[in-house]
Design a protein that fits this description.
alpha/beta; 11 helices; P-loop_NTPase; binds adenosine-5'-triphosphate
């Protein structure tokens, strides 16, 4: 039987009772606003997320829904005109939102690291991999020359690149190798959390899948947690433990990945699932979601998805839905609100 309470999402890994450990990452009531000439734009609206040690959390949604803004906010990398309007980002209980840049620099690379969409932009084009890896290690302690060389070779081997490429410049590597070299750099100091923003998006489909498999294998081998942003829901279906589906700055569905894939409870999640081919499932015709996401400077009243929703009904354009508990997941859809049940039944 499905429960329909309005609720705050809980940690997927904490299910099953027993003592609940402090999550590695706990994002609470997080809102991020861009100050624009047209007024404030809320790109992340009151978001909750808990990621346990070694957990893989994926954030999916169409372009412009706030995924990268969320990721930058978690990593402490937001710049004006963006600002955190409210909420906290607790990493091992310490709030990254209130830390100074110096304190954040202490944690970056060592405790958490970030892999961005394009390694070509993230890596320094005029320095060899060896020089860049050395800089990252030197900035975080007194490593000897031998230690730096040994660790640099070790992480390159981990991602399947011949250590001879320590002498290579980024432009001498293929796109897939550059992304792997960036991931290797992120693993240099064995962080507990790796935050990834569409790390496979610049690659062809075959290279994308093989990099995903490699990321998952590394995660299982080394035990780090992952927050992974992508617009392609099918990409994370077999790799993530927890899934957040974002639309127009809000989480519209959140829960264990298997639950959301097997029985998506939000019409937007269903639309996204039908918009991408499954890696292993049967061949079915792909359908897009008609229309496009709203302008966040003037989102539609009521449910933000209602102008595109195939299941829209009379209250959707006036009543903003909360996140309602639906079995093991949460859904921001009035179809799951107790009052809506009476209206629709
Ligand atoms: N520099 C900016 N100035 C003003 N508003 C911005 C800026 N960057 C982003 N936004 C607003 O924030 C929203 C979310 O942007 P964001 O880049 O986080 O989305 P996304 O889901 O990561 O998209 P993509 O997949 O294209 O990167 C945008 O739709 C836009 O309204």
């Amino acid at each position: 039987m499905r429960s329909t309470r309005s609720a705050t999402p809980r940690c997927v890994r904490c299910e099953g009772g027993g003592s609940v450990p402090e999550p590695l990452l706990s994002v609470r009531d997080l809102s991020v606003v861009y100050e624009t000439v047209r007024g404030p734009v809320t790109a992340v609206d009151n978001l909750q997320l808990e990621v346990g040690e070694g957990e893989f959390a994926a954030v999916v949604g169409e372009s412009g829904c706030g995924k990268s803004t969320l990721l930058f906010a978690i990593a402490g990398l937001l710049n004006p005109p963006a600002r955190i309007a409210s909420g906290s980002v607790l990493f091992r209980g310490a709030d990254l939102v209130t830390m100074t840049e110096r304190e954040l620099n202490e944690l970056r690379w060592r405790d958490y690291s970030v892999v961005l969409q394009s390694a070509m932009n993230a890596l320094n084009p005029v320095a060899t991999l060896a020089a860049q890896y050395k800089d990252a290690m030197v900035a975080h302690g007194t490593h000897t020359k031998e230690e730096i060389h040994a660790r640099s070779m070790e992480v390159l081997r981990l991602v399947g690149i011949d250590p001879v490429h320590l002498r290579s410049y980024p432009h001498q590597l293929s796109g897939g190798m550059r992304q792997r070299a960036m991931i290797a750099m992120a693993l240099l100091l064995a962080p507990d959390l790796v935050i990834m923003d569409e790390p496979t998006s610049a690659l062809d489909v075959v290279a994308q899948r093989s990099l995903m498999v490699q990321i998952k294998e590394l995660q299982q081998l080394l035990g780090f947690a992952v927050v992974f942003v992508t617009h392609d829901m099918s990409l994370v279906s077999h790799f993530s433990d927890q899934l957040l589906v974002m639309y127009a700055g809000q989480v519209v569905e959140q829960g264990p990945t298997r639950t959301v894939f097997d029985s998506p409870s939000h019409p937007y999640s269903r639309g996204l699932l039908e918009a991408f081919p499954s890696i292993r499932g049967p061949r079915v015709p792909l359908r897009g979601i008609p229309g496009s996401p709203p302008d966040l400077a003037a989102p539609p009243p009521g449910c933000r998805f209602h102008p595109r929703c195939p299941l829209v009904f009379d209250r959707c354009d006036t009543v903003p839905p909360a996140l309602y508990e639906v079995g093991a997941a949460y859904s921001r859809c009035l179809l799951h609100a107790p009052a809506a049940r009476e209206v629709t039944s």
